Amino acid sequence: MEKPHADQKTRAPDLAGHVELLLRPDELRRIAEEKELVAVQRDLAAVKSEEERQRDLYRAFLGQHLRPEAIERFCSMARDAAKRGETKIELLRFPSDWCTDRGRAINNDEEGWQDTLTGIAKEGYEAFDKWLRPLGYRFSGRIVDYPGGKPGDVALYISW
């Protein structure tokens, strides 16, 4: 194909019968906005679903109680840990948001941090205090992760 000379003008193609096929910029913006809206709605639905799941877990955490077989499970866990040469077991792990102060006292190792426990964690501490402390066991708790730089899960331990 021969290149046009500088003095020759190039002709634009004749679109006369095809102009109605062209999309207008406002139509393109609307299409993009609709796609973004669908993505935002999907993300919001996922967040709502996760919030509902967390509420259900928290309600279960608050409503759960120690069972009679808890002593047998504790003894089995402690014996197995001791056989491995360990001196503590993790009893429970839960979000720090479930403490009355969102885990602040545990994170700062404040005296009386146990008073911030709720639900089954509080019941577990009360059982420890009544039955295991007199035998020489120790109870501790700590924040075990920091997602986004904020206190995440609390782990509760019994040691000997």
Short description:
The chain is an alpha+beta fold.
Mean pLDDT: 91
Helical/strand content category: alpha+beta
Percent in helix: 40-55%
Question: What about the largest sheet?
Answer: 3 strands, antiparallel
Distance between termini?
Answer: 90 Å
Instruction: Give the strand line-up of the largest sheet.
Output: 1-3-2
* N-to-C SSE string, H for helix and E for strand: HHEHHEE
In total, the number of strands is 3
How many separate domains make up the residues? 2
Q: What Rg is obtained from the alpha carbons, in whole angstroms?
A: 32 Å
Low-confidence region ranges: none
Strand content: 5-15%
Gross morphology: rod-shaped
- Number of helix segments? 4
Task: Describe the protein's architecture and organization.
By secondary structure, the chain is of the alpha+beta class. It has two domains: about 25-60; about 65-160, no CATH class. The protein has four helices and three strands; from the N terminus they run ααβααββ.
Q: What order do the helices and strands come in, and which of them pair?
A:
Blueprint: H1 25-63, H2 70-83, E1 88-95, H3 104-107, H4 119-132, E2 138-143, E3 153-159
Antiparallel strand pairs: 1-3, 2-3
Keywords:
160 residues, single chain, alpha+beta, 44% helix, 2 domains
